[in-house]
Design a protein that fits this description.
Keywords: ATP-binding, Nucleotide-binding, Transport. This is ABC transporter ATP-binding protein. Belongs to the ABC transporter superfamily. It comes from Salicibibacter cibi. GO terms for molecular function: ATP binding; ATP hydrolysis activity. With 308 residues, the protein is α/β, with parallel strands linked by helices. The protein folds into 2 domains: 218 residues, Rossmann fold (3-Layer(aba) Sandwich); 64 residues, 2-Layer Sandwich (Alpha-Beta Plaits), CATH 3.30.70. It has a 6-stranded mixed β-sheet, sandwiched between helices. Strand 9 and strand 10 form a beta hairpin. Helix 3 packs across helix 4. The longest helix is centred in the middle third of the chain and has 18 residues. It is elongated, with a radius of gyration of 24 Å. The two termini are 39 Å apart. The mean pLDDT is 92. Bound molecules: adenosine-5'-triphosphate. The site of adenosine-5'-triphosphate has 11 residues, from strand 2 and helix 1.
Length: 308
């Protein structure tokens, strides 16, 4: 896979404060890279360096193999971006804002504006002043602006910010369509970890300015712990049957039986048969999966322990 976005050990210091340290990213064409981290972990600073908005104290960024500098204009032709609050002219309408950006981009086809408004469900707000838009619609306008010149690369800081659940589903579908059907490469930061888990092909966790883990989406399933949760009418007796059969289990805080035994998780039918056979038919039997949020918190806690 061709690498389109790359950073080579970039660091940023603000007056002695290390905001980002040695971050090396490599994002292939058509990938959706989800960048996650706590507030102040260095996501926006990294994104700004990748876009040439601030200069790394050390290290270099490359977009499509070209070195990123504040003066390398060519890069901007291939990149659409949102960094923090999307910029717009609040006194102008949605249509006027997009018209201005079309002209700044020297795009001759005026139809592109209506096309992108349609794509982002903004047509009905075309005549509304941008300053009066809801947060979610302002975000859509930001994404519309980023997409106007059909860029090959999208770098989006919190693109789902302020969107309602249906807006999130819509933007998710749009980003997936762009990446999977049109080969657009996307780097997005987000606090919505469940969203990142759904959409990203690769996830990067940044903490205290360092990239502490990268996870391919296909690895994610294996990393997230699973457990089988069982309820019967006599959990104390049922658990002793399970333990006798070699399934390490415990009663959790809710009084339910819980096991992380891989055989039980892979074959819950066998557990069900065993319990029915011994006279403790399950009334509930579910495989529960740890979500990205709890995995993320576990990783961050471990990092905290390393520092202490
Ligand atoms: N211009 C600046 N001068 C001094 N410190 C800064 C500057 N910009 C960012 N920082 C600091 O660098 C650290 C990383 O900030 P950054 O905005 O990159 O984090 P973030 O992960 O994007 O956070 P959030 O999720 O809250 O947006 C923070 O501690 C922040 O206070």
């Amino acid at each position: 896979m061709r690498t389109v976005i790359k950073s080579n050990r970039i660091s940023k210091k603000y007056k002695g404060f290390q905001a980002v340290k040695d971050v090396s990213l490599s994002i292939g064409k058509g990938e959706i890279y989800g960048f996650i981290g706590l507030n102040g972990s260095g996501k926006t600073t990294t994104i700004r360096m990748l876009l040439g908005m601030i200069k790394p104290t050390e290290g270099t960024c490359y977009i499509k193999g070209e070195k990123v500098t504040s003066t390398n204009q060519r890069i901007w032709r291939s990149v659409g971006h949102i960094v923090e609050t999307p910029h717009c002219y609040p006194e102008l309408t949605v249509l006027e804002n997009l018209e201005i950006f079309r002209r700044i981009r020297l795009m001759s086809n005026p139809d592109i504006v209506s096309k992108v408004m349609e794509q982002l469900n903004l047509t009905r707000y075309a005549q509304k002043k941008a300053g009066n838009l809801s947060l979610g619609n302002a975000q859509r306008l930001g994404i519309a602006k980023a997409l106007l010149h059909s860029p090959e690369i999208l770098i989006l800081d919190e693109p789902m910010n302020g969107l309602d659940p249906s807006g999130i589903v819509e933007i998710r579908a749009l980003l997936q369509d762009l990446a999977f059907n049109r080969g657009v490469t996307i780097l997005m930061s987000s606090h919505l970890l469940s969203e990142v888990a759904k959409i990203a092909t690769k996830i990067g966790i940044i903490h205290n300015g360092r990239l502490i883990q990268e996870i391919e989406s296909i690895q994610l399933r294996d990393l997230l712990n699973q457990q089988l949760v069982i309820d019967t009418r006599h959990n104390k007796s049922a658990i002793s049957q399970l333990t006798t059969a070699g399934y390490a289990s415990k009663i959790n805080n809710d009084g339910l039986i819980e096991t992380t035994d891989g055989r039980a998780i892979r074959d819950p039918d066998e557990i069900s048969r065993l319990l029915v056979y011994t006279g403790f038919a399950p009334t509930k039997l579910i495989v529960k999966e740890e979500n990205l949020e709890s995995y993320f918190m576990k990783i961050i806690e471990r990092e905290g322990e390393k520092v202490q």
